[in-house]
Amino acid sequence: MKEGIIRIENGRVEAPDRPVVLFIVGDGTGPDIWRAARPVFDAAVEKAYRGKRKIAWREVLAGEKAYRRTGSRLPAATISAVSKYGVAVKGPLTTPVAGGIRSLNVLLRRKFDLYACIRPVSHVPGAPSPVKNPGRLDVVIFRENTEDVYAGIEWKQGSPGARKAVEFLNSMGSSVRPDSGIGVKPVSREASQRLVRAAILYALKNRRKVVTLVHKGNIMKFTEGAFRDWGYEVARREFGDVTIAESELRGNRAGVVPDGMILLNDRIADSMFQQVLLRPEEYDVIATTNLNGDYLSDACAAQVGGLGMVPGANVGDTAAIFEAVHGTATKYAGKDMVNPSSLILSGAMMFDFIGWNEAARAIRAALARTVRNRTVTYDLHRQMKNATLLKCSVFGREIIKNMTSSASTLNYRLGTIGSTQ
Fold first, then answer.
1. Cα distance between residue 86 and residue 20, in whole Å
2. Residue 283 designated active-site
3. For this structure, is 216 an active site residue?
4. Which member of 27, 115, 216, 283 is catalytic?
5. Quick one: pLDDT at residue 420?
6. What one-character-per-residue DSSP string does 248-285 give?
7. Which of 115, 150, 283, 412 is catalytic?
8. H or E segment to which residue 153 belongs
9. Catalytic residue among 17, 164, 179, 270
């Protein structure tokens, strides 16, 4: 079976029967979760396709391992490989707080213009939760990935750049203290609209009913408020026949969404944190700016068992990187303890992306069965009664064992991204 390249063109994804998929092991607990996850991925492909399809895994370096071997945390060879092959699965990478290197995760997203950070948040039955009814929450968050404060435009307090920025801002009528550090928050029409467009297309493809724009436009009117306005604009211009704004329902439609149409609404960011707790079933697909999306996706994850139970994808027009959404958890590195579910579920998203939906379903069903059987890693075990504590590697093997049963125990409604199949 000859290796091939996954083609990503004009929103279409075509994968050969043996595609090259890159992997970045990651820092801290990255090696632990990758060793648990990769056999799960291969077992799912074997179960679904009985030898007719297979992933050709190819390692590329980033983070501490790359620095030790090459002197660079993001070598040119890695950039070249992602440019060529287009699809990668990665573990967490270390980002120091305050001084030091900037986030490699952000750098990868910007380098390949992976403008949509997609995080589905849905409860796996049996997983512990701090809320009474975690199954009420079933959202897919589209977080703009390239702008906002994550653009990294800032000047340290006391630096020449900060002094110039303060002088300029004050000359424009602002009142900025001279001892301030300065950061700039860009939000553009182009980036905002392509993110909202991707969210609407996802909703259409997966029969989701509501797309919500989350913003802080009541305070930041020309960035966050503009994001909201540009979102409605692209919906009217490109999806006017299949979307309807909430404001229209208050008029002559008596609050009823016509059959086959998607409701488009918006919520202030701080209010949205209440909404996902008190009225989660009213929300479906969420499109938001970078910082809001970071906070909101973590807050939603807390309701379904934590970051260890939530997958993530960073998707652009020519490449996609699927990653564990939690940090490196270095104090647990090498101890074979951490929950590999985030990386495993991110791999399931990767299979959906390339059109191998049967493999994705096999992973989700087997993982759900494993959790329902109360055989879990320490993060879940400490919150559950009468559960069996498993090491990270053993949890992965338990998922593989549970793939032998054909019955599904997981009612995921996450849908797919990118694939034409």
1. 9
2. no
3. yes
4. 216
5. 43
6. HHTTTSTTPPPTT-EEEEEEEHHHHHHHHHHSGGG--E
7. 150
8. strand 153-155
9. 270
CA distances from 305 to 37, 127, 180, 302 (A): 19, 6, 39, 6
Name the strand (E) or helix (H) holding 366.
helix 357-372
Judged on CB neighbours under 10 Å (0-12, 13-18, 19+), 298 is middle
CB 224 within 8 A of CB 216: yes
Catalytic, 336? Answer no
Nearest-CA neighbor of 26 among 294, 305, 346?
Answer: 346
**Mean pLDDT value of segment 47-75:** 95
Q: Which residue pairs from 14-20 have beta carbons closer than 8 angstroms and sit at least 24 positions apart in sequence?
A: 14/355, 14/420, 15/354, 15/355, 15/356, 17/52, 17/53, 17/54, 18/53, 18/54, 18/55, 18/56, 19/55, 19/56, 19/87, 19/354, 20/56, 20/58, 20/85
Which runs of consecutive H residues, i.e. helices, occur in 138-289? 160-171, 189-205, 224-239, 246-249, 269-278
1 token code pair: 């079976």
pLDDT tens digits, one per residue of 123-158: 999 999 999 999 999 999 999 999 999 888 999 999
> Which one is catalytic: 138, 294, 336, 352?
294
Residue 10 pLDDT grade (very low, low, confident, very high; cuts 50, 70, 90) = confident
Q: Which residue has the tokens 């409860």?
A: 123
Single-letter code of the amino acid located at 421: Q
Whether 148 sits among the annotated catalytic residues: the reply is: no
Angle formed by the axes of helices 30-49 and 392-402, nearest 10° = 10
Asked if residue 414 has pLDDT above 60, the reply is no
**Residues 249 and 147 sit within 8 Å (Cβ to Cβ):** no
Radius of gyration (C-alpha) of the chain in whole angstroms: 22
| Confidence at residue 195, expressed as pLDDT on a 0 to 100 scale | 98
User: Model pTM?
Assistant: 0.92
Which structure tokens are listed for 131?
Answer: 């809320």
Query: What residues pair up with 155 in beta bridges, in sequence order?
Result: 182
Q: Check if the beta carbon of residue 38 is closer than 8 Å to that of residue 341.
A: no
Considering only residues 11 and 228, tell me which one the structure prediction assigns the higher pLDDT: 228
